[in-house]
Amino acid sequence: xxxxAQPPSVSVAPGxxxxxxxxxxxxxxxxxxxxxxxxxxxPVLVVYDVRDRPSGIPxxxxxxxxGNTATLTISRVExxxxxxxxxxxxxxxGERVFGGGTKLTVL
Amino acid sequence: xxxxxxxxxxxxxxxxxxxxxxxASGYTFTTYYIHWVRQAPGQGLEWMxxxxxxxxxxxxxxxxQGRVTMTRDTSTSTLYxxxxxxxxxxxxxxxxxxxxxxxxxxxxxxxxxxxxxTVS
Lengths: 107, 120
Description:
The structure holds two protein chains of two kinds. Chain A is mostly beta strands.
């Protein structure tokens, strides 16, 4: 089955840019979604179809993908962005696959 | 407002079954697929399967084939996920989440609040 690899943790200072990677075989050809999950809460969709944002999600959240890596970029990071972030794709068998998650710490 | 409201916490013994419900409101029930996703304590998200409320067709993750059944009741706009032969490692928070299929799969944009299932 398809595997997505994320770094376990990323740390960034407030106001800086955080980049969270999601590695998968030829992921650049797939539709990638990203979710933010704050402690004790259900996940929230922050980017869908590689680079689109649902209504209500700040422009500071953006996505890109090429080759074997997709990236979620959070600009001008705020304390409220501290959360776990998960990438997700639809593999060829029809199953959905999540990455292992990345804990974003705002220093 | 769009909501997915799930049933309350459950405790089961190993070998038993559990059935979790997810009631949809605020949108046309048959226009969004519903996924079930679980999260063990301190762990990541795990996809279990998908149901099309319009017709009831399902696709289950290979890991859960034979143990999971997803159904829906269109008269009450409610989805159900039943997991059988429970083990201790099935202890998790179970979520339902919706996804639009047209014009393209667009990610899980609305999630239920989660249902804690404890197997002990």
